[in-house]
Amino acid sequence: xxxxxxxxxxxxxxxxxxxxxxxxxxxxxxxxxxxxxxxxxxxxxxxxxxxxxxxxxxxxxxxxxxxxxxxxxxxxxxxxxxxxxxxxxxxxxxxx
Length: 96
Known about the structure:
The protein has five helices and no strands. The protein is an all-alpha fold. The chain folds into two domains: 59 residues, no CATH class; 37 residues, no CATH class. Helix 1 runs antiparallel to helix 2 and helix 1 packs parallel to helix 3. The protein is elongated, with a radius of gyration of 19 Å. The termini are far apart.
């Protein structure tokens, strides 16, 4: 007699890993877009694979790291604090 728990267990473990990785990615994206990690964590836990495209399409806040540094940050790029300081010292009051 074959034990079915072992067959189900390995598939469930891989699905668990995929679920956790999509949650981590959604949390990272929401944090970079300026909304914090918790909204991304919640959408990642509830919507699994749909959370990543949702956060990729969701608009970023004005002072977020996504707007200032871009989607993939480079080494030596300006920080959000530097961008805010430039905006405050801009005599015209315009953004970037």
